[in-house]
Amino acid sequence: MKATLTVLGSGTSMGVPTLGCLCAVCHSSDPMDRRTRPSIMLTYAGRNIVIDTTPDFRAQAIRESITHVDAVIYTHGHADHILGLDDLRPMTFRGVDIPLYADEPTTTRLQEIFGYIFSGEYKYGNSAKLALKPLPDDLDLWGAKFKQVKINHGKTEILGFRFGNAAYLTDFSDIPESSMQQLQGLDILFLDALRHRPHPTHSTLSNSLRIVEELKPQRAFFTHISHDLPHVATNAELPDNVRLSHDGMKLEFEI
C-alpha cells in the first residue's frame, strides 16, 4: 500500500530559530533552516496518522492543510512531543473520538497534564474528544502495522516505530542491538542527529552516520536537528543517500 510521509517538524526541543540566539543558522534566510519541533504524519488509505503532537502542531497543521487526524501515536512524554495535544480539539468537533496510542509512562504524563480532557473531575463540555489507548507491540491501523522499536534516550527507554519499509527514531542516544535487528531492509530511516558535539541524551551526526552505514537503508534522513547544523552546508558533506530532513518534506514509500 502506498503511503506519504510528511515531516511536520525537524527541529530540536527549542526549535530553530532558537529564542534569544544570534547564531548564523537562527538568522538564516534559508527556509530549510527554520525547524519546528519534531513530528511526522503518515497518509495512506485516506487516513492521517500523526506521530507526536508538538507545541507547534497547530502551525504545522495549517502549513500542511491538515483537515483531519485519524490517530496519534506517541514516542514518549517529553514536552516537545506532547504539548500540542489540545490543538486536536477542532478536529474532534464532528463527534469522532481520535484514538491516542501511548505506552504507560506517556499515558500517565498525558493524564497529568491534560486532566481537563481525560479526568471526570475536571472535564468540561467542549474538551477535545480523545481516547487514550494502550500501545501494543504491533499496532494495526487501517491495514498498516506499526511495530515498536525500543531506543534509549539517555537513561530513559522510549519508542521509535517501524511501519512497512520505513522507520522513525527520534530522541535517542543509543539503539540496543535487539532493536537494530528490527531495522534491517528499510527503504526510509529517520534518525535523531542533534549536532556534532556529544550530548547525553541525543545522537550526534557522526553516530547517526555510523548507524546508517551499519543498517544500509536505501535512504536516510536526520531529524531533531539543532541550530548547530546549517541545512545546505551539512547536506554537502553527507553521503548521497543521507540528508537532513526539513519541515514540509514529503516522501513516498510502501507501508
Describe it.
The protein is an alpha/beta fold and 255 residues long. The chain has one domain (2-254): Metallo-beta-lactamase, Chain A, CATH 3.60.15.10. It is built from 7 helices and 14 strands. It has helices at 57-63, 79-82, 104-113, 115-118, 177-180, 205-215, 231-235; strands at 2-9, 39-44, 47-51, 71-73, 98-102, 130-134, 138-141, 144-153, 156-163, 166-169, 188-192, 219-223, 242-244, 250-254. It has a 7-stranded mixed beta sheet.
Keywords:
14 strands, seven-stranded mixed sheet, alpha/beta, Metallo-beta-lactamase, Chain A, 255 residues, single chain
The separation of the N and C termini measures 6 Å
CATH superfamily: Ribonuclease Z/Hydroxyacylglutathione hydrolase-like
CATH architecture: 4-Layer Sandwich
Order of helices and strands: EEEHEHEHHEEEEEHEHEHEE
Number of helices: 7
The helix fraction, in percent, is: 10-25%
List low-pLDDT spans.
none
Q: How many β-strand stretches?
A: 14
Q: Which class in CATH terms?
A: Alpha Beta
- Round the Cα radius of gyration to an integer and report it: 18 Å
Mean pLDDT across the residues is 96
Strand order of the largest sheet: 6-5-4-3-2-1-14
Q: Report the sheet-strand fraction.
A: 25-35%
The biggest sheet amounts to:
7 strands, mixed
Shape: globular
CATH-defined topology: Metallo-beta-lactamase, Chain A
**What is the SS-derived class?**
alpha/beta
